[in-house]
Amino acid sequence: MHLSFRTRLTLFFLLLVVLPVIALAVAALAVEGRNGERQIDARLGQAQRAADNLYARALRDAAAAARDLEENQDFANAVQDRDENALRQQARQVLRMSRLAGVEFRVRGVGVVRAGARRGVAVIGRPLRSSDGNFAGRVLLSADTAEQYARDVADATGLDVVVSRNGRELASTLGVPTPALPGRGSVDIGGANYRATTFGERVDGGPPLDVAILARDDDDLVTGPTLLLLGVLLAFMLCALVFAVTAARSLQAQTQRLLFAAQRLGTGDLTVQVPTEGNDEFAALGREFNNMARQLRTRLEELDMERTRLQESVRRVGESIGKGLDRDALLGIVVETAVDGVGAESGRVLMRDGPGNAPAEAARAGDVSGYLQLLQAAEEAAMEDGDAVEMEFAGASAVGRPLQSQDEDAGVLGVISIARSGRPFSHREQELLAYLANQAAISIENVDLHRTVQRQAVTDELTGLFNHRRFQEVMTAEVERTKRFGHELGLIMLDLDNFKQVNDDYGHLQGDLVLREVARVLRESSREIDEPARYGGEEMAVALPQTGLQGSYEFAERVRRRIEDLELPLLDGSGTLRVTASFGAAALPGSADMDKDALVAAADAALYKAKRAGKNRTVKAE
């Protein structure tokens, strides 16, 4: 079926305007209906993260208090003597000196000694040891009560909070009884509709804590702005229909005039003048028809100008090459620009991996198989002469030009070569190739310098291991990857035993030798995916992706034994020196909700225990 221009134009307006308007109206209703829920869910998500952060902070406070308690000699003596009064005094002192809500000591031979809240939330448990190091019981430190934690979360988020354990409500900011709350969704409480999100928080030595955050959901499905939008869309659709019919009639008449003029131009009559009344698009189109004849007469001149612009654009590309940092992409751009700029059929770039090494192909453009022998001959001659060489054979021509380093001692970095058949390369084309080769050589050296600077920025100069900054970046990335993919992440921390004595007895140069040799052992013992680093001073660390606690412990033991077997020569020639190291091993299970700092703290605490237990040993984190 053949439709007239006016009919097709009318249908076009209908499809372009009416259907999108209808779709927009439907989408507006759907979006408005869901917008309120999405905003509330987003706010609940932010509130959950805030609650997690508050809970993590409370756990850190409790952990810090636990570490202080482990170092308290009076407390260790009280545990050793089974002195209940002294233990109770120590419990009250812990409350005074920290922000904890409750302290509980479970001591063999004494029983339970408690101060503060009977049982709070954000609980940290630690084993009790007497002054002689024997296990004597357990300590539980509560950072917050359920009521305080609920108030803190409510103050931080502006939302209502319910805290429960095993289905029993511990604290609430609602003031009314709450039914069973969903993990995420809507719930009716006291006749009001709420959106809720419920999540768990770990409690050491007890069942997990359930935290529910609730936000009022009173949004209407259809609001006044939505009705106004629908009205505007309906009015717009009616106006569009009227305009479509009117415009179709006007455009049909103007198209007929343009069609007649185009037919005249098609017969070769360049004198025809197209009507150009008015200032609309059809008048502009008529003026373009009238300019067409003039453009045809000047086209040859423009072609020559375009060739000149092409040469200039190639030069600009050459200048941009000098700023690139991707070596492989840079070489690809160089050879492609050289082939296109001089009208070659193919080309390639050879680069040396290092001084004295044979050059190898790094990039190519076009099919070099038909010119391979000719290209190789031009490349070898250019590398040998240190200057451009052109060779011809059987109607084909190839040019090789070396990539010269700015450093005279470095010599030739590589060679770029191009080839084609039919005619040799002109002097102007060879000049353009020389310009590109010089820019490429400068950029390659810039890339190498940039890589060197990047490597130095993350490497410890003495040991060759990653520095502390790089270690922190790696740990952040690995913890996030562990959470995303459910893998395990191991971490070991090691500290050289009695290293200060080495410096005092033999000097810092001897100490530097010890650090370098230990770093070498650590580097040789690590896998490609492991990340050994100098954490600070004589302390080092290794991040072990996809490794659990047992694997981390076994790795640490292997390294410890290799360090113990080292025999390091004394710099004064008087003999040899042997050193040992203490290790702490920790791991982040794939299902754990733990951050980087907690993992590092766990490994560091295990290292501290290894030191206290006699050094030259590995201790697993609890």
Structural account:
With 622 residues, the protein is an alpha+beta fold. It folds into four domains: 1-222, no CATH class; 224-297, no CATH class; 323-452, GAF domain (Beta-Lactamase, 2-Layer Sandwich), CATH 3.30.450.40; 468-620, Reverse transcriptase/Diguanylate cyclase domain (Alpha-Beta Plaits, 2-Layer Sandwich), CATH 3.30.70. 52% of the residues lie in helices and 22% in strands. It is built from 15 helices and 21 strands. It has helices at 5-70, 73-81, 84-97, 146-157, 224-266, 281-297, 299-321, 327-342, 372-385, 427-457, 468-485, 499-506, 508-525, 549-564, 596-612, and strands at residues 102-107, 111-116, 121-129, 135-144, 160-165, 168-172, 184-189, 192-201, 209-216, 346-351, 360-365, 389-393, 396-404, 412-421, 489-496, 531-536, 539-545, 568-569, 576-577, 581-588, 618-620. Strands 6-5-9-8-7 form a five-stranded antiparallel β-sheet, covered by helices on one side. A five-stranded antiparallel β-sheet has the order 11-10-14-13-12, sandwiched between helices. The protein has a five-stranded mixed β-sheet with strand order 16-17-15-20-21, sandwiched between helices. Strand 16 (531-536) and strand 17 (539-545) form a beta hairpin. Helix 1 crosses helix 5 (224-266) and helix 8 runs antiparallel to helix 10. It is flat, with a radius of gyration of 39 Å. 31% of the residues are buried. The mean pLDDT is 80.
